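pinned: reference chain
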Amino acid sequence: MSTPKRWGLQLLFGWMNLVLAVPSIYLMFGLPLVLRQHGWEGTEIGLLQLAALPAIFKFLFAMPVQRVRFGRGHFVHWLWLMSALLLAMYVAIGWQNLIAHKLPLFALTFLISIATTWLDIPVNALAVQWLPRSEQLRAGSIRSAALFIGAIVGGGVMVLVLSRWGWQAPFVIMGAALLGGCLPFAALRAQASLPVQDSATDNTPPAILADWASFFAQPGATQWTWMLLTSFPFIGAVWLFLKPLMLDQGMPLEQVAWTIGIAGGVTGALFSLIGGRLISVLGTARAIVLYLLAALAALVLLTVVVWAKLGAVWLTISALIVAASMGAISALMFGLTMFFTRRQRNASDYGLQSTIFTVARLVVPVAAGVMLDYLGQVGMLTGMSIGVLCALGLALRARHSVGATAQKVMARED
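pinned: its structure tokens
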């Protein structure tokens, strides 16, 4: 595959991941700011976050994508099918202003969450199928950067679009972006060089369980699963609570918005790309340890800054260091997820790993919130630092087996 073609595919998959990140972030994190201004109660806004639940069941959504065939290039057909459903949801939710219609807004937000979760599976299954293994770490870093940019667009830009051009404008923009991303797949689908897919179509529970069991039978898969559960959620939970934490430390709201919402997002995106590039230089095993060490150092620094009340400048510096380490770790996680996704089981393996990652990412912030309420800011940050320390201990044990699997996968397909 030529270099321009590889970069074209990388940018296409990066765009699709950005397009899928923006609606979820806008509906669950950006729009609630507007809903609050229109009299929504905290409980109602909190219930809206339950629309994220479909992500937990991605492993179930992956099974029909893997096994139900729509002819040659069936992943592209799945991508178009789910994109059409998502576009229909954009039309439905944007048809009229739903701020005063709570039940329809929640229902459509939930359906959009299902559509984006389901669409994510064929998008990333195609990335595993079409990109050489040597390009998949870069794909992971681009995907991580896309998520950070999506947080800026969905949590900030789309709110400004809403306030200036009205309710429909964000959904028109998101629909146009999705449609633009889908069109190139018409040309890519016709390529004759696609790998031959596994022909199994048995959808019985034993066959599905056998798929999952065979995933864990891969060399290093058990160790990788523990890493997937522990490496990101603790620093991710701290990032989630950074805005209220900085407000409680006396930083003005506008400064917090710029620090976390804009500067933090840009820093995370930048270090996602840098971190993905450094993995190939450092080697996977060494990168695993160094990135978790950086995350631990970032959380320890933030804990000291909060404990010693060192002020806004040090808070800003430590927050940006947290963003940088989080970007590098997420690039590593997404890249290794592709390595442990077998080409013959690309949808089901990807869906299973995404579910494992999501469950941990949802559970740890709940624990962090409880710690914040009962132990205070320093107690919560200390607890999350201990969590990263435990993840580092697991990584020290798993790094060689996980790194060896990554090397073997690349060597086998070079």
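why pinned: The CA atoms of residues 232 and 329 lie 7 Å apart. The two ends are 12 Å apart (CA to CA).
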